[in-house]
Design goal:
Porin; two-stranded antiparallel ribbon; 300 residues; ten-stranded antiparallel barrel; alpha+beta; 3 helices; 12 strands
């Protein structure tokens, strides 16, 4: 009888030890899977979300719309005339107002901002930034602003932001930017690149404040290879020589996913050169990146 109890006890002990091994194995596999999932990089997640096309195919349901036989078609000539007359007034008023807000209002034609010229470089003297109220020939017809900023979120995610801004005809600028980000995850490197080309209109052109908006295209390279319509906004406040504060935002939409870049930089000007540092935010589809930025630039 004792022998039977020993056999039964040994059998139960063997089964329990087997169950322990199976439990440990499943726990290990789950942990490995969880770690590998949690370590999938921001760049990879962002690019995958952009590549997934979310354009829903709208099935046109041919619900045969029965023609309304009793529809009234009695519009008199007088009603048509008055309707088009007021519609014309509304369109003209809207266009006039939009032009005044976006481009220039009649009240600004005699102001100094109307004839503001592009400065040779910011803080050439103590009272002006990008624009100067010039009464002489001491200004630029065209100017190139070149900048390069190193951005870093952590030791595994960093990159470079290079930009060229070609200013011309007092109010316009062609801005080209190239953003390159690198991320190290699971002993491999992932890359992300963003190209942008915007035509900017500098709406506010005072000696202390420069503000603009722009339209153009933005292109995501690497594994995505998609182009979207781009919008840009920005302003630079020249606080006091040699300090200025710059904020800008660029945005596009690719496959119903946002891709944008926001900058908030403090700049220290040394003649034609400047040193900048501050904050940059990137949104790449579902991924968000908050980075420290440090860079240099020159005006030519």
């Amino acid at each position: 009888m004792y022998c039977n109890f020993g056999i039964i006890f040994g059998w139960f002990h063997f089964k329990i030890s087997q169950m322990k091994r199976i439990f440990i194995l499943f726990s290990f596999l789950f942990t490995v899977n969880l770690v590998s999932y949690s370590q999938s990089g921001k760049l990879e997640k962002g690019k995958e979300s952009i590549k997934e096309s979310t354009t829903t195919s709208t099935t046109s349901s041919d619900s045969s719309t029965t023609k309304r036989s009793g529809r009234r078609t009695r519009e008199t000539n007088d009603e048509s005339y008055f309707g088009s007359f007021f519609a014309g007034i509304f369109v003209d008023l809207f266009a006039y107002t939009a032009y005044g807000i976006a481009i220039e209002s009649p009240f600004e034609l005699d102001g100094r901002m109307h004839d503001a010229e592009i400065a040779n470089y910011p803080f050439e003297n103590s009272f002006h930034g990008n624009y100067i109220y010039a009464n002489s020939t001491n200004y630029k017809i065209v100017r190139f602003d070149i900048s390069n900023n190193f951005v870093i979120e952590n030791s595994n995610l960093y990159g470079n932001n290079f930009g060229v801004d070609f200013r011309f005809l007092r109010r316009f600028g062609l801005e080209f930017d190239y953003l390159s980000l690198t991320e190290k995850i699971n002993a491999k490197r992932d890359q992300f690149s963003l190209y942008s080309a915007l035509l900017n209109y500098h709406r506010i052109r005072t000696q202390k404040l420069d503000a603009w908006f722009g339209l153009g295209v933005m292109y995501v390279g690497d594994d995505v290879h998609k182009t979207g319509f781009g919008i840009g906004l920005g302003a630079e406040w020249f606080v006091a020589k040699p300090i200025s504060l710059k904020v800008s935002h660029k945005w596009t939409n690719i496959n119903n996913q946002e891709v944008n870049n926001t900058k908030l930089l403090l700049k220290y000007h040394i003649k034609k050169y400047h040193i900048s540092s501050g904050y940059e935010h990137f949104k790449i589809g579902v991924s968000k990146i908050d980075a420290f930025s440090f860079g240099v630039g020159v005006s030519l």
